[in-house]
Amino acid sequence: MNGSEPNDGPPGSQGRRTLVLTAAITALLLAGGLLLGWGVGRQQPAPPAAKNKAGESRAPATRTPLSDGGASSPSGGGQRTEALSASRPLSITIPAIDVTSPLEDLGLGKNRAMETPRDPDKAGWYTPGPAPGSVGPSVIAGHVTWDGAPAVFFKLTELDPGDRIEVRRADGRTAAFTVDRTAVYPKDEFPTVEVYRNLDHSGLRLITCGGDYSASDSRYADNVVVYATLTDSTAGN
């Protein structure tokens, strides 16, 4: 793909696909910097099913009790490291699924709607939230498919606990995260507070669509969320 704007955008989208937030979630957004898991219509084919290490498809995740955000080690292995000061993220690399992408800026558009990446081959950072590497749950989102072709996060469900995610930052440092888990949620049961709640450490959330695709609704049934924790950082040359 060459990054040009698809020709099937909704009227008034001004080149970006958006999801209008419900009133309840908008209130959360205004109070605590939260956003809702989003979906992008007119996407196919279906992405790979989420798998565990035994190769079996995962069932959609159920909500789990929230932890207290303490200092225990990440569930994916590795040792949690001290958060960095805020710095603009420039690119993301996920070696396990052969993803390397510059990052677009994603903000809020009309009607308190979250913007999604212009280019289906690029991921985007949600700029009102924490910067990757700083304290809190930073969010990077990407399309799963676009106009019948795989997009940047097509293989996101193939990530396993312990896989590495690297975010290169404007301050010259690379923040390295370790995957804790991958969860699949029906869109109408998206656990917004669990995904975007405050943390006392640096976390990362990768978000895309998943599950079955409905041609009549032009949407996927689920959202895929990868949870990861900062476990290393290195200075650039």
Q: From the 3D coordinates, which CATH architecture would you assign?
A: Beta Barrel
Please state the average pLDDT score: 77
Strand segment count? 12
Report low-confidence residues grouped into runs of 5 or more: 1-43, 52-72
The CATH class = Mainly Beta
The helix content, as a percent range, equals: under 10%
The number of distinct structural domains comes to: 1
Distance between the termini: 31 Å
* CATH homology group: Sortase
Any idea what the radius of gyration is? 17 Å
Helix and strand sequence: EHEEEEEEEEEHEE
- Looking at how many chains there are and whether they match, the oligomeric state comes to single chain
Strand content: 25-35%
Q: What global shape is seen? A: globular
- Tally the helices: 2
Structural class: mainly beta
The main β sheet shows up as: 8 strands, mixed, barrel
Biggest sheet: strand arrangement: 2-3-5-6-11-12-10-9
Q: What would the CATH topology be?
A: Sortase, Chain: A
InterPro entries: Sortase, Sortase_dom-sf, Sortase_F
GO molecular function, one term: hydrolase activity
Region (Disordered): 43-87
Pfam families: Sortase
